[in-house]
Design brief:
With 58 residues, this protein is mainly α. It is flat, with a radius of gyration of 17 Å. The termini are far apart.
Length: 58
Amino acid sequence: MLHAIVEELSNGLIESTNTKTRLIIRRGFGFRTADAVIALVMLCLGGNRPVLPRRQLA
């Protein structure tokens, strides 16, 4: 707690990422492989936005 006060650091960003990851994994229940769930997490939280066919980048 001392570091949070002195350094003004928080683990809120990590906690929100963990919560989002858990929700995505729950949504992916029933996928055949873990690779599909990992790909879903990376797509939702990875930051890369692939260009879809017939769509322009905004």
